Input
Amino acid sequence: MLKTMVQAIARFCGVRPGCTLVRVSPLKQLAARANQCFDNTMTLCLAKPQRYTLRSGWLVGPDLKHLGTVFIPHYWVFNEKTMRHLDPTPRAEGDRMSYQYLLDMDLLAHASAEHPLPPALRLNLVGDFEVFMQSGRWQALENLGTQLLFELARVVG
Output
């Protein structure tokens, strides 16, 4: 059984070796909307392309209703002048979870207009990765390959 977020992150990075833990600070943007990370980051990157570049990866939260560690695909920006990772997307109302960020540029490389993000995942309490299906059930995943994750995005919507 995985007991800490550090262990969960280490397990995830072991399966997706291109992932790196990064420090990301909030960036307040008046026009930014919760749950619209791609739009929020693209707006910044297009407005100031010399300053901001797009980053992709995962928000890692300590639990999903006490069912395990959650891995939520996410976009943020990198400020080329200050060399800092910044997240312009505000939290959804009531979201009090403390997240860590894993940089995973494979998500950006495989994104499309129809499916800019793969589905969220969880690492359950016994150490298995799962995805939430449209049927309302969690389905175990054998691997976390980028192509498989984006194929799942088409299925789970």
About this structure: Helices lie at 5-15, 37-47, 106-110, 146-156. The first helix runs from residue 5 to 15. Residues 5-156 form one domain. The radius of gyration is 15 Å.
